């Protein structure tokens, strides 16, 4: 009898339902483009003009998001990574973690 009760309790535990607001929020995760994911910390715009983290890169990315359908797919953020600080710290001779 105890065994059967334990089985039923475990079964009912797996059948637990969840509830959420049906307000249309968070149907997808926040979606955006993060410069670090592709370009890491390339800040040498002299030797790598198309691949360095710069104003040009972010404008180009924003234009592509608008024209290539990323906005319609739910992308809405362009995240400027803090790698922009790396160049300044390299000039100072300090290190970054």
Automatic annotation (TrEMBL):
Q: Name one GO molecular function term.
A: alpha-galactosidase activity
The record's EC number reads 3.2.1.-
Cellular compartments per GO CC? cytoplasm
EC category: hydrolase
Top-rank taxon: Eukaryota
Query: What Gene3D superfamilies does the entry give?
Result: Aldolase class I
Which biological process terms from the Gene Ontology are attached to this UniProt entry? glycoside catabolic process; oligosaccharide metabolic process
Question: What Pfam families does the entry give?
Answer: Melibiase_2
Keywords (A to Z) from UniProt: Disulfide bond, Glycosidase, Hydrolase, Signal
User: Which residues are the signal sequence here?
Assistant: 1-20
Looking up SUPFAM superfamilies in the UniProt record yields: (Trans)glycosidases
Quaternary organization? Homodimer.
Say which family it is in: Belongs to the glycosyl hydrolase 27 family.
Protein name as annotated: Alpha-galactosidase
Traced from the root, the source organism's taxonomic lineage reads:
Eukaryota, Metazoa, Ecdysozoa, Arthropoda, Hexapoda
